[in-house]
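To whoever picks this up:

The nightly regression suite flagged Zinc metalloprotease as changed. Nothing in the input moved, so I suspect the structure step. Input below, exactly as stored in the fixture:
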Amino acid sequence: MNTIISFIIIFGALVFFHEFGHFIFAKRAGILVREFAIGFGPKVFSYKKNETIYTIRLLPIGGYVRMAGEDPEMAEIKPGHRIGLLLDENGIVTKIILNGRDRFPNARTVEVEKADLEHQLFISGYEDMEDDSLKTFQLSREAVIVENQTETQIAPWDRQFASKKLSQRAMTIFAGPLFNFILAVVVFTIISMIQGVPVKEAVFGNVLPGSPAEEAGFQEGDIVLSIDGSEVKTFTDMTSIVRAHPNEELVFTIERDQQTLEIPVVPEKQEVEESEPIGLIGVQAELDKSFSKIALSGFQETYLMTIEIFKLLGQLVTGNFSIDMLSGPVGIYKTTETVVQTGLLNLLRWTGLLSINLGIMNLLPIPALDGGRLLFFGVEALRGKPVDRQMEGVVHFIGFALLMLLMIVVTWNDIQRFFIH
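Regenerated output under the current build:
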């Protein structure tokens, strides 16, 4: 149950911050946001405030922000259609009723001659079949279309995504991955506030009770100068040597209270899944809790993890990293199950890592992802005009289909790895 709750909270937070980035910059650009959704599939919960519906959907595998003008979203009103119109006290149309006019006894029935719901915002038509005078009704910018008892707000052209400047559209799309990186920075900063920032130098912090380090006589504050004669400059240098020598005696040359000591220790052998065993002695790096270190730590950790992920992507492209090693939702769930058992700080660190992953994956220039859309914006900037929307839609559809295929393959590999073998 802890794993399920943790997985839902983590995945929900990642999706929420990603979509919130899109949402907040769409709002800043003046784009009509129709829906802010967490999850896909049938609605579990919905709440409407102002012009946006906020929904939680059944399948917690993503989310979306539905912006006006991105998809066909309203029925087209053509000449000859008989519709109902509700007007306010100033004679401005507030509701356009396509069917079920009997539910609106005050609606005025009009046979449409001409309609413009985007630019000039009017409907012209004949209100009485015996009266051949053409009447024109002005629409409110917030007017809604009622179809099958569902109301959809019209979107004047200046409220649609496509009407905005290229920079505004690009920023609205880029903001999703950007907010994932911001979330990672916040998470890593919180971790540093709780435990402090590990110093770079090879200085011992906490010595774990019952560990080989404690049995050998190491103490907090010991400075490692060398191991078996090899100079040690950083805590990472020390860790690398220890990990490479499980069950082998190592002689540490340390400085303690301005004295130089030589202390032998045998790293404990630790088995690692799908890897060679490593050595551990049971010490942690000294922690710095100064404000300056904590303030920078979130940015530094996010940067370092981003670089590591890009290295793995490079290995995937060059063939040094197999697709079988990728994980989908099942693999993430199983890893979360392991991390939950190691404590809150590791769970927070895992959340930050996943957030960076989500941000990077969405920035890849793959159709159907944010990076794919940004690529089309780049082409638009070079050409001086947008790419044909139908062609772009086909490319994104093909990309989405390929991504779904990859997701199926990765999920099947996860199932085989964790439940069959």
